[in-house]
Write a structure and sequence with these properties.
The protein is α+β, with helices and mostly antiparallel strands. It is 25% helix and 22% strand. It has an eight-stranded antiparallel sheet, with helices on both faces. Strands 13-14-15-16-17-18-19-20 form an eight-stranded antiparallel sheet, with no helix packed on it. A two-stranded antiparallel ribbon has the order 4-7. InterPro entries: AmpC-like, Beta-lactam-related, Beta-lactam/transpept-like, DUF7586.
Length: 469
């Protein structure tokens, strides 16, 4: 079954319909995933440029066919929600990412582990809580953080390596609750779910929702899985959601929303925050978000699993496309890979149409005079003016250190990309007021390469340029 409409409880702008061939390709991928993955049901959705444009589900005969409004458990896709709550605290000045957890949540016994290390899974904490298996047993067995962490919670030196940790996100959920003075669930509802209109996302299921199943690995038979309340570990994996809500959440993580987090902060979350494990250079982890390279694209999102359920969320900022896939089996399909495929089908078949070129409404003549070629040593760069008084500095040959810069009060610019991220670009003037050079984090850019009299560090040879040495 396919639908082109979105959940009535979470309205989206009127979508631009996909081509029939694209819709069939999407349905074929979902159908193949449900069949080959041997799962009772599977549903996927795709959003682009602010709206859900397609959803489709498949189910075993006699089982309700899911749609964009059917809830499934999303497991660790809960973690980006917790990450957003922590980043809100940072943006409000209530904590710093470099703060040790003990500053805000004393008595955990995890030493000087920082908030940022917990977000990026570089804290060195154990992946799981002590036995029994927390995903299949009631959260009441672990009433306090001591029960979650156990006697030896730290396995690796903090900040040295990526080691996925459910216990770390349990601590972050407790941090949110401690700073806000209310439960993680209440904060989540008030600060993310309600502002973004994610009305089908919550800590407990509400109809229509799927039941969780285990499928026998060697026979086509089923066993129901328990759906446990995770208690204090809820911030690591408790949530239920729909593909419609998850696509909307992905659009927020791609673009930001000032009611929840500004665009600059979600961009920070999407940046790699810790080295990838040895040999795994096709993926990294940001601040609550997984990052991977698939078919030449950078995809961001998260995966999730709990007994009876698997979930995948992926989005491409460049393509303006997001995809979510949910299924109700303990193992079998790979929702993250299927979501990446759905995204790729739309992005490849119906690539984003560029916005029309538009002249700037006005331009500062002094800024315009700065455009054109500049030289760092003998490397040629071009400086261009972009929207809102920003500038872009790009090499004229090869890749080099390209960057966009945001205009700041006082006539400077702050780097937004790669090597120059956070670095300051400023115009340096000679005593007579003429522009001498550009300074970018102490790098000197001059109008000519090693011109006599220019402010080139180390000076310029008095005999100037010459022929054969």
């Amino acid at each position: 079954m396919t639908t082109s409409s979105t959940s009535p409880s979470a309205p989206f702008p009127a979508p631009v319909p996909l081509l029939p061939g694209t819709e069939r390709a999407l349905l074929h991928r979902v159908a193949r995933a449900q069949s080959e993955g041997r799962t009772p049901s599977l549903v996927g959705a795709v959003a682009r440029d602010g709206a859900v444009v397609w959803s489709g589900g498949r189910a075993a005969e006699g089982t309700p066919v899911p749609d964009a409004d059917t809830q499934y458990r999303i497991g660790s896709i809960t973690k980006p929600f917790t990450g957003v709550l922590v980043m809100r605290l940072r943006d409000e000045g209530l904590l710093d990412l470099a703060d040790p957890l003990e500053k805000h949540l004393p008595g955990t016994g995890v030493g000087e582990v920082t908030v940022a290390q917990l977000l990026a899974h570089s804290s060195g904490l154990a992946a799981e809580s002590p036995a029994p298996w927390w995903e299949r047993t009631p959260g009441t067995l672990r009433p306090g953080l001591g029960d979650v962490l156990g006697d030896a919670p730290v396995l690796h030196p903090a900040g040295r390596r990526f080691h996925y940790s459910n216990t770390g996100y349990t601590l972050l959920g407790s941090l949110v609750a401690a700073v806000r003075g209310t439960s993680w669930e209440d904060v989540l509802r008030a600060e993310i779910l309600e502002p973004l209109g994610l009305l089908r996302t919550g800590v407990r299921p509400s109809a229509p929702h799927a039941e969780g199943w285990a499928v026998h690995p060697w026979a086509d038979v089923l066993l129901p899985e328990p759906a446990q309340d995770l208690g204090i570990m809820a911030p690591a994996g408790q949530l239920w959601s729909t593909v419609g809500d998850l696509c909307r959440f992905a659009l927020f993580l791609a673009e930001g929303d000032d009611r929840v987090l500004r665009a600059e902060t979600v961009r920070e979350m999407r940046a790699p925050a810790v080295p990838a494990p040895e040999g795994e250079w096709d993926g990294a982890y940001g601040l609550g978000l997984q990052i991977e390279r698939v078919a030449g694209r950078t995809l961001v999102g998260h995966g999730g699993s709990l007994p009876g359920f698997l979930a995948g969320l992926r989005f491409s900022v460049v393509d303006g496309v997001a995809a979510a896939v949910l299924t109700n089996a303990t193992s079998g399909p790979q929702p993250g890979a299927v979501a990446a495929d759905l995204l790729g089908i739309v992005a490849d078949t119906e690539p984003r149409i560029p916005a029309p070129w538009q002249p700037l409404p006005a331009v500062d003549q002094e800024l315009l005079a700065l455009t054109g070629p500049w030289y760092w040593g003998t490397y040629a760069y071009g400086l261009a003016v972009v929207a809102d008084g920003g500038v872009e500095l790009r090499p004229l040959r090869g890749k080099g250190r390209a960057a966009r810069f945001r205009a700041e009060p006082g006539g400077t610019w702050t780097g937004l990309d790669d090597y120059f991220t956070g670095e300051t670009l400023r115009v340096v003037r000679a005593p007579d007021g003429r522009v001498s050079h550009l300074d970018v984090g102490s790098f000197v850019f001059t109008r000519e390469p090693y011109e006599q009299g220019d402010a080139v560090p180390g000076g310029v040879d008095a005999d100037g340029w010459r022929g054969q040495p």
